[in-house]
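Sequence in, structure out. First:
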Amino acid sequence: MAILKPEEHEKLALELVKFANEELERRRKAPVLIRGEEIEAQLKESKFPVHMVDPRIGSNQKSFRFWKCRASAHRRNTEWKSLGHRHTVEAVIYFEEGEGYSVIDGVSYQWKPGDCICVPMFAWHRHAVTRGDWMVHLAATTGPLSMYLGLAVYEDERYPEHWIFAQKGEEALKTLIPGKSGVPGGSTRVALGGGDREALSPTDRLYLDMLGFAAEEEKERRAGKVLVRGDDLAFEPTRMGNVALVVDPATGFHMRTIGTLVAEIPPGKRSGAHRHMYEETEYIISGQGYSVIEDQRHEWKKGDTLCIPVFAWHQHFNTGSENARFLVHHNRPYMKNLGFLMVEHGEDADF
C-alpha cells in the first residue's frame, strides 16, 4: 500500500465532513417517479427484467432494487428442473398476472395475482406457471446491498461450475451452511454438542454461539412464513392511513433486511405525512392522485412507481374515484438492526 501524502489525508478527512451535504444533493437530483407506460413498453421488447429502481441507474435506493418481469409460461416451466437458483439476497415477489407455484427449499407454494412470496437469504427457489400464457411479477431484492458489502453469491442449477461452495448431492445443495452435508439440524464442520456449556468461559460460550449461528439462522428461516394471500390482507387504521403488513419480521417472516406492506387511501382522502431514515419504494397497484415529496408535487396513476428519498417528507393524495393502493417495499428491518431507525411524523391521515 502506498503511503499517502499529508494533503491526501486531509482530503479524505474533508470528504467525510462534506459527505452528508453531497448525499443530500444526490438524493434531490435522483429520479422519484417512474412511469408505468415506459416500463410496459420496455417489457415488450426485453426478455429480461426491467429495472425501475437500482443504484446503478441513478436511483435513490442503495440497499435494494425493484424490477418487473414478464416471462412466458414456457420459459418459466423449462428454465429449472429441480433446485432453481439461490443468492445471498432477500427478495419479496408480488404476482400481477398468471397462476402457478414457487418451490422454495423443496416446499411448493401456490400463488395467483395479488399474492406475495418472500424468498429468504440463500434459499433455493424456482417458479412455474400453471395457468395463463405469461407470468408477470414485481420483485424487490437486496442485491445492491450484498454487492456493496462484497458478499454477493449467485448459484444456479444450470451452471454448477460456478457454484461457490461446490457441494455435491441435492440434499447438501439445500443448505445455507458451507461444508454441511445433511439437512438443517445436522452437524456442521465442528461438532457443537456435548460437554458442559456452563463450564466454559463466557468468551468461549460466545465463540460457540458464533459457530452455531449459521445453523440456527437456517432453522429460523425455514420455520418462517413465505406466502401471503392478497385475499387475506388485513388493513388496520394508523396515523398514516390504512395499512396491511405483508412481509415483516413482526408477523413471522425471517427477513433481516427488507419488508413489505400495502397502504390504502380512500377516494378524496390523503395519507399522513412523515419522513424516515430508511429507503422506500412504492408501486401503485390501483388508483390515481399525487404525492408531495419535500416541496415537489408528483402526479401518479396505476402502474407508476415512486422512489422516496431517505428522510424526505412525503404525503399522498387520492384524487380518483377508487381506493388508491400502494405496494410498499422498504429496508426498515435493516436500519433497525443497525440501530439507525428514525421516523418523524408531521400530520395524521384525514380518514
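Second:
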Amino acid sequence: MSKKIVFTSLVVLCAVLFVLLKNWYDLRNPWTRDGHVRAAVIQVTPNVSGQVVEMGVRDNEFVEQGVLLFQIDPRPFDAQLAQARAEYDRTGDNYLAQEQNVASVAAQLEVARAAVVQAESAIREIDAVIEKNAAELQRQQRLLPQRATSQKQVESAMAQHAVSLERRKGTEAALVQARARYNSAAAQLDEARATLGELGDANPNIRAARAALQEAQLNVEFARVTAPVAGYVTNLNLRVGSHAVANQPSLALIDADSFWIEGFFRETTVARIRPGDRALVTLMSYPDRPIEGQVESIGWGIAQQDGATGRDLLPQVRPTFEWIRLAQRIPVKIALGELPEGVLLRVGTSCSVKVLGGTAIPDEEARGYK
C-alpha cells in the first residue's frame, strides 16, 4: 500500500472522527447562531390629551425612574381643577343648607306633635265636663217632678250641658287642624330627607363632587408624564408643539433592568436543554467578550405556517420536498449574568448562544417546569 493511500485514509478517518465528535458535542451542548437581545419595551402612553409644552429628554438618552419625559399644557386641567373645587364647595354648602332645613322641619314636626297631644288632652277634658254636666242635667230632671229642685236650676243645667257640647265642637276642630299641620310637617320632613339623601360621606352628591375633584387632580398630575422605570428613550419623535393623545403611545422606553437573550434552537436539540443550564452568549458586536447566562425557560409553542384559512375558506398548505424536512426552531429564554466591562446591550442585536447541557441544578430544573 502506497504512502499516498495511507495518508489519504488517515485524513479521511480524522475528518470523520472530527465530524462525529463535533456532532456529539453539539448534541450534548446545543448551539445556535439565531439569538437576539431582548428587553421590555414600554410604550409610554399619556392619560390625557393636550399640546406638549416641554420635553424633558432627548433621543437615546438614559433616564432614571420618575424623571420628566414631557409636559402637556397644564392650563386646561388647572381650570378644570378650579371648577371641580368650586363645585365641591357648592355641593358642601347645599348639603349643609339641606341638613339645616331637615332640622328645621323636624322641629316644626315636634311642635305639631305637641299641638296634637294638647288638642287630644283638651278633648278628654271636655268629654269629662260633658259627662259631668249630662249627669247633673239628668239629676235635676229627676228631681223636678218631686219639687226637689226648681225649673231655673234645670234650665241652668241644660245651658251648661249645651255650652260644653259647643266647646267640644271647637276642640274637635282644633284637633283636626293640629293633625293636619302634623301630617303636613311629616310630609315636608320626608321630602327634605329625600332631597338631602344619605348623611355625611355616604351622600351621593358629596361623593360625586369629591370624585370629580379627585379626577381633576389626577388630570393635573397626568399632564406631567414621567418615566415609569429607569431605561433608554428610543426613536423619539415627540416635539414641543406636538399634540399628545390620551391612551395612544407617544414614545418608547427600554427598561434597563429587563434585558435577556432569546435563542432559537432546532427542535432536535431542545430535548437536551433544561431550565437552569448554564449558557454562553457571544454578541456579534463583542465577539471576544462572551457573557455567562442561564436558561430561564423554554417556549411551549410556535406559530404554524400551514393551515391558515386562504382563498374560498380553504386551508393554505405550502408545497414541500418529501426528502427534506427542516427542523423547527423553538425559543429559549436566557437570563444574563454580570456583563463584562464595556459591554452594552441593545435590543434586537444578534448573538450566538451555547447551552452547556447537564449543568442545571435539579431544584432549578424542577422550578423551571412549574
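Remark: The chain has six helices and 14 strands.
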